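2024-03-11 09:14:02 INFO worker-7 job=invfold-0412 stage=load source=structure_tokens
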């Protein structure tokens, strides 16, 4: 538990922060990029941190892509990152099944996109649904009982821009008819600000839809759940106190960093404003805050 007020990042404390930390964990959207556009100064800042020997890790709640697809995205934006530096909630869903010894004989029904399907496959699991069921239909007033595969042992729900009534019915049948069926949520982000023009519904609404019909609470694997931290820790020989989580969202990134004992740096290049931070109803306070990631470079004079 932190007790002091959040500190504005300054030329006085930026270098100390960098020196005291061995790994930086970066949220992606709103920190590294906004949608398809790189945030100013990110490339030089990451290079500076790498040149100082810092480990860099990228943690995103967006399950639409796999780690391989994210590595391509980083590369296309001029950042070289290896797949094993990327922790996406799509990967987390597959790893949750793995560490819980989910039998590869069972199947996984997906409300989600290609990223989840690919991570499941790479982990040795059979995913059903997802993009394949985009055009299928079901209707509660017509007598159109759908067949569902009885070997489904888990339902994974993430962002799905082609969610439909068929997928909801399929997922609901899997969970309600098999009490042992796992219900896994990649993340519960309420909305995203993926373009400048307006906010759009995030995976939270898909997860809530399945939660509503199944009357079950999902197991969350993305931020702020600490599930991904176990994987991160296996990469490092030091502990969380030597890590700093940099993010734009208080209720996912900063909470994730704090609940795992990392230092936290909030940036205003994404969804949170200075007035959100100072709002009396906000109870999540980062250790540091600043405008954007490249302030680490500018203020530390590195
Ligand atoms: N979920 C979806 C569908 C998104 O598109 C995004 C950002 O683009 C996010 C979640 C949040 O991602 P991050 O954790 O990188 O901010
Ligand atoms: Ca973010």
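2024-03-11 09:14:09 INFO worker-7 stage=emit residues=302
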């Amino acid at each position: 538990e932190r007790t002091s007020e959040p500190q504005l990042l300054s030329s006085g404390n930026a270098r100390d922060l960098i020196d005291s930390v061995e790994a930086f964990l970066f949220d992606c959207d709103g920190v590294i990029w906004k949608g398809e556009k790189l945030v100013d100064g990110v490339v030089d800042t990451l290079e500076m941190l790498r040149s100082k020997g810092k480990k860099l890790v990228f943690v995103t709640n967006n399950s639409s892509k796999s780690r391989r697809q994210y590595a391509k995205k980083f590369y296309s934006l001029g950042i070289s990152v290896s797949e094993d530096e990327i922790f996406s909630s799509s990967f987390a869903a597959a790893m949750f099944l793995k560490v819980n010894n989910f039998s590869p004989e069972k199947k996984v029904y997906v409300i989600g996109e290609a990223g989840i399907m690919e991570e499941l496959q790479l982990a040795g699991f059979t995913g059903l649904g997802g993009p394949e069921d985009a055009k299928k239909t079901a209707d509660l007033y017509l007598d159109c009982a759908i067949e569902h595969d009885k070997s489904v042992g888990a339902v994974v729900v993430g962002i799905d821009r082609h969610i439909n009534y068929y997928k909801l019915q399929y997922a609901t049948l899997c969970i309600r008819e098999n009490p042992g069926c796992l219900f896994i949520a990649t993340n519960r982000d309420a909305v995203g600000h993926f373009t400048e023009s307006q906010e759009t519904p995030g995976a939270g609404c898909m997860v809530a839809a399945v939660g509503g019909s199944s009357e079950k609470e999902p197991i969350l694997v993305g931020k702020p759940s600490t599930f991904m931290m176990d994987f991160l820790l296996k990469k490092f020989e030091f502990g969380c106190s030597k890590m700093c989580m940099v993010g734009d969202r208080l209720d996912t990134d900063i909470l994730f960093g704090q609940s795992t004992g990392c230092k936290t740096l909030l940036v205003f290049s994404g969804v949170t404003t200075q007035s959100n931070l100072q709002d009396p109803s906000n109870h999540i306070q980062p250790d540091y805050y600043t405008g954007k990631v490249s302030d680490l470079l500018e203020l530390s004079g590195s």
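2024-03-11 09:14:09 INFO worker-7 stage=report msg="The first helix runs from residue 14 to 20."
2024-03-11 09:14:10 INFO worker-7 job finished
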